[in-house]
Amino acid sequence: MPNFWTSLPKPFLALAPMEGITDFVFREIIAEIAKPDVFFTEFTNTDGLFSTGRDLVIQNLSFTEKQRSIVAQIWGANPKSFFKAAQLISELKFDGIDLNMGCPDKSIVNKKAGAALIKNPNLTQELIKATREGAGNLAVSVKTRIGFDKNIMQEWITFLLEQNLDALTIHGRTGKMRFKGQASWEDIGNAVLIRNEVSPKTIIIGNGDIKSYKEALEKHKNCQVDGVMIGRGILANPWIFNKTTEPVTHTKKEHLEILLRHMKKHRDKWGTTRNFAPIKKFIKMYVNNFPGAPDLRNKLMQCREHTQAERLVTQALSSTLEHS
Fold this sequence. Notes:
Layout: E1 12-15, H1 24-33, E2 39-40, E3 44-45, H2 54-57, E4 70-75, H3 79-91, E5 96-101, H4 106-109, H5 121-135, E6 139-145, H6 153-161, E7 167-171, H7 185-198, E8 203-207, H8 213-223, E9 227-230, H9 252-270, H10 280-286, H11 293-301, H12 306-322
Parallel strand pairs: 1-9, 2-4, 3-4, 4-5, 5-6, 6-7, 7-8, 8-9
Helix pairs in contact: 3-5, 6-7, 9-12
């Protein structure tokens, strides 16, 4: 299988893996309204894929052809599990496999995974090697930060590039910063210079604080990254991957139609196996920036099941059409 990263346009855009956000249904919706060049799954625990809870965990690895190019992101600290997970992901015919080495969540860090790997180059090397062995010809990448509790970008990024990765995503904050402060795109730009010396074929993706396609283009121009990853920016604008540099205003009708579609897809996909609660984070995203949004949002946040919420949105849509 050819390395898909090398066939992407430059700059390409990627949707960041976000736990509880970038699930199967959300990726389906975004693929329909404004598709990025690359999707990532939610991060998936490698040990969980081979535990008694496998049936639940493997749901993270559902995708459709509509979502390509699609990369499975994994996390953990056991090389044997990474090897087996890479074999599975290859069998499932993903386009790539990504190792999470940047998540700052304490529950992940306490398991010596995520951003904790920045402090453990020996284990990092083992995990990358095991993944490569299990992945066969599948593209292998890493998503990380510029340090754990302090900025060690030069040392850490040089080390990762020496592992001959197909792609490397760099979030311009330390783990300690979590999502506070500003992402350092200066460091991301310097990482590109290191790449040019150490591993010229490795694709570099910059990540942090991007809120529009115009900003992505600016970062590509100024920092020379091959691609730009957008995470939380999509929560303010579901259409962020539309490749237009001019601001576009979307109507109340458009927002409500997408929310209704999302809720129905969620119900159809998960049935009774997942409750309505996860939809509420998307309600905050879609029901925004139009007249009457706060009142409708408050009513929807009080809903406890799909049909009740779908009825409210349908009524709001009907009212919108009557007054248009």
